[in-house]
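fyi for ur records
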Amino acid sequence: MGGVSTTQAAERAEPTDAADATTDATTKADATTDATESAEIAPRSPRLPHVPKQDRSRATRQRLLAAAVACLAEHGWAGSTVSVVAERAGVSRGAAQHHFRTREDLFTAAVEYVAEERSTALRALFPEGAADRREVVVALVDLYTGPLFRAALHLWVAASNEEQLRPRVTELEARVGRETHRIAVELLAADESRPGVRETVQGLLDMARGLGLANLLTNDGGRRERVVAQWGVLLDEALG
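which gave:
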């Protein structure tokens, strides 16, 4: 008969199936190549830089100290609780207490932070030394009339009434006073081996502190400028 047998049909079908299989394999290979090329061409999502845990902890501590200083300057001791400071710093109360176990620990560290900031600010004004002593007098007075001194003052007042806080603040302020005096002597190029020079420098710092106290109640900038100008003249005469 003229019909095609089952065996013949199968034989004829084999080449076609093999061709289809080859085509499918080629298509898959092309798809894999396209996907690989697309992945290479497409921009990769940028990875956020990894911040070490120690750096994050240090940054949190700095935020807490800065917030404590700001709260003291604005609200005083009574209004500056750990919760208020933590909220201002943008951290939880638990995180705050992880760094500072008690309120006294927090604000004592804040005063030390203030002292370091004051010293840094003073040195930053004269990185290569001061050419004019009157400029140093102005800079010192500005430090004692700014927010950093205001914050420290609130803690002094609190320490006078808080038995646990007083010895810490007293010890810290003695150290701060010595450091401030040393920086002032260096910037003024004062020779403390000469009689009366040490007392003159200390008198300058006491005067600056007094002007800072007066500035808490009224802004007497005009009078302060005249006093500062006169102290510049006196220092030139006393220090030589």
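The chain has ten helices and no strands. thats all i got for now
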